[in-house]
Write a structure and sequence with these properties.
The chain is an alpha+beta fold. The protein has a single domain, classed as Anthranilate synthase, CATH 3.60.120.10. Helix content is 35%, strand content 33%. The strands form 2 sheets. Strands 1, 2, 3, 4, 10, 13 and 14 form a 7-stranded antiparallel β-sheet that branches.
Length: 272
């Protein structure tokens, strides 16, 4: 069975607390998350193979660190660096795919024109433009795609692409310090959103919403570790969440959170 860290009442209280901070002008948005755990005899390799079939994703990873395994099926790219070129592709906005191609096409149109989801993503685009501006050559920060839709096995995501050219003195460490943690999984303004989330989230995130990637010479690529779970001693932990804004409802945000976790729980043989 899947055991969530927050029941509906506790989750609603935290959504309302975040919305109160928004109403008071502390923040515009915060990405509230919760954790689930499950016991399973299935090996992490088996679960990961199942997850890859259920949710093929471009930024996936399996990491075995002795007694701990990390299983990631992330759709989100935090950072791609190729020489002095950098791009980031935040996600905000998630709805289920349709049961038919025609229904999926309607939902793509709905997501692409959703005022709420566009507003959420626009806040994060502005935040990331500012983050990149701290390390970019003057005048090179650009929004390559403001709103586009990516299709996955069970969900549609609203995505933006922001890029820049790095100043010559900026190395990978300085770049990571400028942009991490990602704006899409914290909020805006970032520092205050993180402070509020530390008050409202009941368990540590661990690797969740961190970054997994590789460095190869002048090229580096990192995901944001969403749709990610860990395994240790027969226990699997996973997290899911969503961006809370002024017009969010607890019912709507919890439904989106469970939708994002659906393939993770299915890979474990669970239900939700």
């Amino acid at each position: 069975s899947i055991r969530w860290s927050l029941d509906h009442t506790a989750y609603t209280q935290r959504v309302n607390a975040v919305k109160q901070h928004i109403a008071e002008g502390d923040i515009y948005q915060a990405n509230l998350t919760m954790r689930a755990e499950a016991n399973s005899d299935a090996s992490p390799q088996q679960v990961y193979r199942c997850l890859r079939k259920l949710n093929p994703a471009p930024n996936s990873a399996f990491i075995n660190i002795g007694s701990l395994q990390i299983l990631s099926s992330s759709p989100e790219r935090m950072l791609l660096r190729d020489g002095d070129f950098v791009t980031t592709s935040p996600i905000k906005g998630t709805i289920p795919v349709g049961d038919t191609p025609a229904q999926s096409a309607r939902r793509r149109h709905e997501l692409l024109h959703s005022e709420k989801d566009r507003a959420e993503l626009l806040m994060i685009v502005d935040l990331l433009r500012n983050d990149l501006g701290r390390v970019a050559r003057h005048g090179t920060v650009r929004v390559d795609h403001l709103f586009r839709v990516e299709t996955y096995s069970s969900v549609l995501h609203l995505v933006s692409d922001i890029s820049c050219r790095l100043r010559p003195e900026i190395d990978l460490t300085a770049l990571c310090r400028a942009v991490m943690p990602g704006g899409s999984i914290t909020g805006a303004p970032k520092r205050r959103a993180v402070e509020i989330l530390q008050q409202q989230e009941t368990v540590p995130r661990g690797i969740y919403t961190g970054c997994i990637g590789y460095v190869a010479g002048e090229r580096a690529e990192f995901n944001i570790a969403i749709r990610t779970m860990t395994h240790h001693g027969g226990v699997y932990h996973l997290h899911a969440g969503g961006g809370i804004v002024a017009d969010s409802t607890a019912d709507g945000e919890q439904a989106e959170t469970l939708l994002k976790a659906r393939n993770l729980t299915r890979a474990l043989g669970g239900s939700w």
